[in-house]
Amino acid sequence: MEVPQLAGCMADGKTYTEAVLNAEKIIAEWLETAQMLGRNIPEPRGKLMYA
Description:
Layout: H1 16-37
């Protein structure tokens, strides 16, 4: 599972639910690291629609 708004932010899991839970953790870590490094954090663009 890729987080398109956060460059290089990805997670996986054995099930979809596990992947989503892992993504939530990695998003928090990505944001924390970006803040520590003084990097810009993109504004949320809302939910993406997939076909």
